């Protein structure tokens, strides 16, 4: 749920405890207990569920004689609204399961704790105790668990015969059969590890040999243009590999109905962020990795080609000086690239230039030549240059670097991008290094089926979406999503009307913007329509998939994606396209499109979202996410776009100054939060995370008020086993548990440097500190929020 200059793409997702020695007698008891549970586990579960439902009913009967049940908060005080809770319980299976999930996540001693002191510990200590980070994970959290549940659904689909005719849109005939076969072939190609091992690194080496012909180490004296850096960058672009510049096609921020070309710095240069190049132990390990991988690939490539040789031609040894110069090149580029908060700031990255002006920034890379290759015959009226300073500095860096160093850099970019698609010992050092950066054991790998579900889900995302929606979504779920978002839109209009810091003219335009926000729920029905098998068949007709060519399958997908992207140059923006597949556990707001998108993957039971459970759960979890995305329309980035998605100055100076005063509070609040690391406390980047922190606060408030209005119309039932809480408090439990999770230190550090979201712990602590409604629900001594915008 990140926010960048176009659409949100940042995923929300991001061991074993020591047991000690046991005597034979204790092991024998454990064995007997295990057998007992295996035989009687189902009966125990039924008994526990009955107890969970019946005990509260019995207690009410004893207490009540029809009187209302008194609810008390954690301070032992009566809630502010004694009539807010019904005595009637929801005893359906879905409600029992939802209640059990909440209780399991809470701190076991929650009745003794004050939620106003540390709501994260209050709501997640039980989750922490029940979950360990697996060896193949960098972290574990509720949203990641939801994603893994979705993966399991997809695994069952992919490993089963084609479905029979269904009530939604599947028919057991062509073209459905054809697209299902294509999906299964892609999955089976990935799963055939023995075949991949026998093929080894050959497909990767083929790419490197092509690069070697395009950009040889020794420049040709006959025709300098044939082996220019520009041609090498074009080759990298054609196979989906990032180079020293990023050249993309997307909606023009100041003309959102038109596609425009943008040129800027890449997202990363080799290591996750520029800070890593200052960490000697990381850089040393990185250099060792580069040397090991490239030397091994060179040995496998001989005698076909010798891309790099030491001065001693009898030995295939990569020069240490060459590796040092490669990493120095990466570091130089990273140091002159914009910081992440500036790269995502439309007021800084939107620099329209003519083609001639763009060419003048860097004589080493010709944007004109690249356009001639990918968009032949098209002459842009303007190009958006993300950072003119970066392009100018890059020219000096490239001119001062040897051709051999640049060549090594380009080869390494290809290896980094495609090593995961081959099974070969030569690339294992890179996979081990990546594990190290995430804090995982060097040789750990996730289950192959998870890798392959993700792979084919990315490659054939809309076919996969069709079958996921068929299995895991419903009309009722879609209708609830539409209702929640419409409710939050209404609530935001009310909030805008009450925002005295806005001038009247700005306020009215903002309300109009809310009404014009497009909402996409569940799955696309255009561009492509996943309910139409024939349309999906045509959509993927140029993608070749075979059950025996995993690497080539992925290459076919990437090349088609590149062709489709560049085919949009100079054409109107297709506003029916989605930026995320239906199975994705995520959501986003797209500023130029003024749209919010919620895939079916994030609208899943049992706790996060379910039409059959009390609405305070769905509004507290999914509703807060929906409000979060809508709030992006008015965060530090989204507020620059008017009601039509145009980047323009539609706020007057007094409103801008009032906004800045309020948002400076958020910057300071989050900058004062730190995470402990082995090198000392590391502060959150309050500027990088500003937009997301604003959206968290605004989304939670809007979701709460929306639910309250619904509850006033028709009161929700209470959940069994939660008589300690009011419905208002359970709303906030649902919100907090959305972000329960834990992460390895190395992954937390990486996210602080690169992720515009705050770590999950502060998405609970920081957001509830900014919620007046939370403080009132739990009768906190201080009712004023730390920071407040809406």
TrEMBL record:
Residues 586-784 form the Peptidase M13 C-terminal domain. Keywords: Hydrolase, Membrane, Metal-binding, Metalloprotease, Protease, Transmembrane, Transmembrane helix, Zinc. GO terms for biological process: protein processing. GO terms for cellular component: plasma membrane. Gene3D superfamilies: Collagenase (Catalytic Domain), Neutral endopeptidase , domain2. The chain crosses the membrane at residues 41-59. This is Endothelin-converting enzyme. It comes from Aureobasidium pullulans EXF-150. The lineage of its organism: Eukaryota, Fungi, Dikarya, Ascomycota, Pezizomycotina.
């Amino acid at each position: 749920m990140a926010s960048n200059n176009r659409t949100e793409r940042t995923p929300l997702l991001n061991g074993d405890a020591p047991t000690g020695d046991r005597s034979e007698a204790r092991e024998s008891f454990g064995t007997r207990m295990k057998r007992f549970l295996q035989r009687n586990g189902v009966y125990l579960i039924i008994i526990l569920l009955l107890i969970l439902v019946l005990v509260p009913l019995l207690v009410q009967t004893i207490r009540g004689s029809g009187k209302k049940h008194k609810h008390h908060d954690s301070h032992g005080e009566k809630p502010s609204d004694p009539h807010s809770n019904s005595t009637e319980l929801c005893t359906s299976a879905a409600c029992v399961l939802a209640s059990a999930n909440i209780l399991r996540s809470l701190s076991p001693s929650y009745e003794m704790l004050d939620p106003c002191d540390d709501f994260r510990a209050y709501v997640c200590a039980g989750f922490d105790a029940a979950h360990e980070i697996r060896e193949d994970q960098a972290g574990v959290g509720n949203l990641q668990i939801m994603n893994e549940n979705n993966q399991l659904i997809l695994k069952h689909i992919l490993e089963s015969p084609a479905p029979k005719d269904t009530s939604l849109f599947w028919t057991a005939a062509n073209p459905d059969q054809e697209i299902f076969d294509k999906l299964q072939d892609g999955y089976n190609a990935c799963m055939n590890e023995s075949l991949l091992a026998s093929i080894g690194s050959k497909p990767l080496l083929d790419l490197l040999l092509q690069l070697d012909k395009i950009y040889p180490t020794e420049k040709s004296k006959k025709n300098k243009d044939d082996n220019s850096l520009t041609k090498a960058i074009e080759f990298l672009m054609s196979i989906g590999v990032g180079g020293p510049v990023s050249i993309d096609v997307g909606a023009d921020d100041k003309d959102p109905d038109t596609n425009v070309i943008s040129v800027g710095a890449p997202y990363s240069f080799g290591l996750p962020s520029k800070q890593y190049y200052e960490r000697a132990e990381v850089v040393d390990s990185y250099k060792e990795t580069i040397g090991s991988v490239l030397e091994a690939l060179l040995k496998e490539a001989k005698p076909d080609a010798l891309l790099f040789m030491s001065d001693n031609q009898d030995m295939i040894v990569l020069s240490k000086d060459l590796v040092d110069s490669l990493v120095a090149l990466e570091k130089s580029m990273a140091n002159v690239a914009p910081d992440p908060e500036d790269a995502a700031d439309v007021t800084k990255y939107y620099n329209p230039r003519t083609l001639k002006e763009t060419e003048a920034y860097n004589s080493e890379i010709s944007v004109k030549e690249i356009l001639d290759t990918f968009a032949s015959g098209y002459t842009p009226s303007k190009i958006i240059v993300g950072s003119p300073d970066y392009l100018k500095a890059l020219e000096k860096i490239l001119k001062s670097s040897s051709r051999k160093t640049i060549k090594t850099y380009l080869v390494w970019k290809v290896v980094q991008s495609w090593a995961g698609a081959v099974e070969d010992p030569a690339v294992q050092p890179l996979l081990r290094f990546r594990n190290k950066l995430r804090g995982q054991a060097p040789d750990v790998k996730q289950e192959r089926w998870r890798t392959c579900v993700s792979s084919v889900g990315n490659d054939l995302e809309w076919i996969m979406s069709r079958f996921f929606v068929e299995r895991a979504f419903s009309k009722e779920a879609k209708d609830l999503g539409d209702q929640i978002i419409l409710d939050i839109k209404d609530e935001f209009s009310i909030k805008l009307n009450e925002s005295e810091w806005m001038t009247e003219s700005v306020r009215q335009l903002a309300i109009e913007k809310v009404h014009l926000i497009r909402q996409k729920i569940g799955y696309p029905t255009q561009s492509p329509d996943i309910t139409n098998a024939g349309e999906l068949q045509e959509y993927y007709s140029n993608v070749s998939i075979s059950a025996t060519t995993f690497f080539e399958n992925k290459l076919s997908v990437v090349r088609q994606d590149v062709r489709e992207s560049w085919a949009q140059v100079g054409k109107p923006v297709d506003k029916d396209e989605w930026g995320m597949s239906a199975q994705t556990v995520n959501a986003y707001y797209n500023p130029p499109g003024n749209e919010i998108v919620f895939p079916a993957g994030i609208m899943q039971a049992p706790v996060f979202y379910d039409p059959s459970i009390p609405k305070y759960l769905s509004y507290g979890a999914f509703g807060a996410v929906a409000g979060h995305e809508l709030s992006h329309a008015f965060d530090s980035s989204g507020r620059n776009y008017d009601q039509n998605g145009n980047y323009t100055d539609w706020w007057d100076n007094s409103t801008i100054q009032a906004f800045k005063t309020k948002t400076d509070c958020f910057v300071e609040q989050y900058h004062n939060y730190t995470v402990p690391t082995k090198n000392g406390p590391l502060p959150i980047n309050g500027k990088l995370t500003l937009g997301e922190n604003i959206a968290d606060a605004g989304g939670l408030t809007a979701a709460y008020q929306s639910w309250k209005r619904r509850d006033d119309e028709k009161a929700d039932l209470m959940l069994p086993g939660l008589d300690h809480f009011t419905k208002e408090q359970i709303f906030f439990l649902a919100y907090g548990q959305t972000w329960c999770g834990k992460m390895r230190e190395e992954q937390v550090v990486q996210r602080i440097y690169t992720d515009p979201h705050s770590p999950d712990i502060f998405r609970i602590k920081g957001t509830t500190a900014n919620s007046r409604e939370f403080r009132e629900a739990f009768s906190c001594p201080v009712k004023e929020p730390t920071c407040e915008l809406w």
